[in-house]
Fold this sequence. Notes:
Chain A has two helices and six strands; from the N terminus they run H-E-H-E-E-E-E-E. Chain A is an alpha+beta fold. Chain A has a domain of about 80 residues: hypothetical protein PF0899 fold (2-Layer Sandwich), CATH 3.30.2320.50. In chain A, a hairpin with a 5-residue loop joins strand 3 and strand 4. Chain B is built from eight helices and eight strands. At the A-B interface, helix 1 and strand 6 of A face strand 1, helix 1 and helix 6 of B.
Amino acid sequence: MHELxxxxxxVEIVTNTVRQENLxxxxxxxxxxxxxxxxxxxxLKFSFQAxxxxxxxxxxxxxxxxxxxxxQCTTCGRVSKIDDGVVQCPLxxxxxxxVVSGNELTVTxxxxxxx
Amino acid sequence: MAVITVExxxxxxxxxxxxxxRALFKHHNVFVLNLVSSPGAGKTTLLEQxxxxxxxxxxxxxxxGDVQTDIDAQRIARFGxxxxxxxxxxxxxLDAMLVRDALQHIDLSTIDILFIENVGNLVCxxxxxxxxxxxxVVVSVTEGDDKPLKYPAMFRNASILVINKVDLLPYVPxxxxxxxxxxxxxxxxxTIFEVSCSKGNGLDSWCSWLRQNISVNH
Lengths: 115, 218
């Protein structure tokens, strides 16, 4: 259940980025969460809602892009989406691969209403 | 509507403090291991056996992380090494700030190796860099040979795998070769040790690996 502390860090980043008087105008907080970081997206959304009740961010919506775990084979060059974390190229079976995506845990953008 | 592009890592504050912990460890030439496992895999027993074998030649210190109680710190204190107990009061992982606070109570200039025993949990500690030199994941054969496939992030982020309780292999349906194969499918670079902390198997090669790394670190 470290989604709660992740949600607290997200709130911290937003409050450090947006002026205090504009916090209530935050509509959307966009995030990227990689498949390999062990964060459950529904739990993160739930935690975010729970800790923003009664705060200026109460109306803000957390929009999360789930980023797949992808590897690139250094033997055949193919990039593959991997569901089970096994770093083997599905095309040529090589284990000579590097991770291309799936370790993201970032706040990418904040959308604020004009009025 | 205005859009502010942010691109900030959520754990940037943790990572920043982890970097300063790491710089401090490097300054004092301290080799630092972050021990992770599910509850009951044998991290504390591995530490006890390791401290017992190293104590004549290597100066160690230990940071113990638990959700509640100082039982583990009491076990470790019997070996006469500096030990700091961190009680997370429900939190499922240690973070770099907690480790930085614990370092107030350890004189890094007097030790060769620092063991950080994380909270027993194969999910959350994977994401939190503490500033360690490397992560050691401990898994016991009684947990089954599919653990690496179920918790890939932890096995990916670790450099060392210690397979514990190998003396129980005749009594459990675990296949140790399959366990090793599953782990290296997730992380082909893993260095693997097979040990029994209650019978002593494999602990000499684990300890000589530690000694080698400590001397390289110096």
